[in-house]
């Protein structure tokens, strides 16, 4: 047997076990087939009657269940001695075990000089097996999310693409979903433990999957599922609320994971882009306050999402070019008809035309870039106040809107104060307006923010009051300075048959006054509305009855004049 290593047979054996890269699902199969072919070439020369391979690999992010397999690489049935074998065991870098066992052909007995050749054979088989395993893991890594072990975007596209190619994609529906307030969870428990939460949540979902269904993570807290049509509702119910245990500083914390879901009913002609993008578009609508947490796709959604993407793509350059302009809408004291403050409103002047806020604010909120616009507006307002003061024009208090997405940032208050101080503006000239629904998702952060602002001389107000779910909590538990009644509350108060609406508004105003907060009514357009609000002891109002939003230069005339309406 001493000449076998330099023989043509061994070259053919080596060539057979050295497989080329291929699909992950084919690596092991191809290696086993190659080893079987190669061993059949050299079995007579090396007196091999039987050879088997044991693999015991630990689990990891790319191989969730690990690998425990036995493969027969060669067998000469009925013609080998199973009592006189040789074996070698190898330990991999991740403490996995690969063991190779051979038995001699017929009644052949291994000789001392055979051991070196057999050890070399074992090493070649091990190296080839290890190469296959590493190549498999490397290929798997390209389609696997390292945090959760689920498919990544490439893995999702690959699997969806295969189903589209085989015309079986319409057996499924696609779900795109996003975890609510995951930024807040990360702030509370830290990003490392946040990753463990994602891992635990993903494990629960994988356990619920049926064969053929696809689950993946598309970055951040966004996920995708391809679910059989008749299991769609069960899957929606399952993923909507899951309880996950996380490690807190002192003790474990139970977290309720809730999601917003976009659902797409897949059609036979759909390609992978349509399957994924349609569910994603529906999910974007699920994030909007006026929609439910589960939204089913409609064709017109894609057009709106496309517009939103254009807004997002142009936003950074628009900021740099100062395309966003501050317009001011006065607030008027209902008893004295005097200008007492104003709200700073954003207008986007693009290509010489004004883009309405409704066409870009939702897109920026969705992308999370609204924070940049909020601070841009605050900086512009502070510059205007500084300019007015330098020219002897006494400003009024200006309220600046901050999106609810900012409230989840615990450093928001410090950043606001830094902008005000950098411009050397008296904090009493600034008021921060926050939409009412901000408190619904994270009331604790909102309360802390309001208290910190008040301690540092900056007033706060709740905008759009009466449109959300937490109105009474906001009145009772938040130490804000002003409550702004939403326009929708005023639309029917002057209708003689709408006594109930009038009673609601009167009682809200009464409660706010008793709590020593100011009330400002938004959207006042008629004298009848003004008189009703004045008689109900509402202190101030803003709306077209007094002034439409106006640019800085025009607003200056209001500041310079008598300030009376």
Characterization of the model:
It is a single chain. By secondary structure, this protein is α/β, with parallel strands linked by helices. The protein folds into three domains: 4-141, Beta-Lactamase; 153-297, Alpha-Beta Plaits; 308-560, TIM Barrel (Alpha-Beta Barrel), CATH 3.20.20. The protein is built from 19 helices and 20 strands. It has helices at residues 8-17, 24-42, 114-141, 153-165, 182-189, 191-208, 232-240, 272-286, 300-320, 361-367, 370-390, 404-407, 412-422, 438-441, 443-455, 471-477, 499-514, 527-535, 552-560, and strands at residues 48-57, 67-75, 86-91, 97-104, 172-179, 214-217, 222-228, 241-247, 252-265, 294-296, 324-333, 339-350, 353-355, 397-402, 430-435, 459-465, 482-485, 518-521, 540-541, 550-551. β3 (86-91) and β4 (97-104) form a beta hairpin. The longest helix has 28 residues, at 114-141. It is elongated. It starts with 7 loop residues before the first helix and ends in a 5-residue tail after the last helix.
Helix content: 40-55%
In total, how many beta strands? Answer: 20
Cα end-to-end separation: 110 Å
Globally, the shape reads elongated
Major β-sheet annotation: 8 strands, mixed, barrel
Q: Provide the gyration radius in Å.
A: 34 Å
CATH class of the largest domain: Alpha Beta
CATH architecture assignment of the largest domain: Alpha-Beta Barrel
CATH-wise, what's the superfamily of the largest domain? EAL domain
Mean pLDDT: 86
**Strand order within the widest sheet?**
11-12-14-15-16-17-18-19
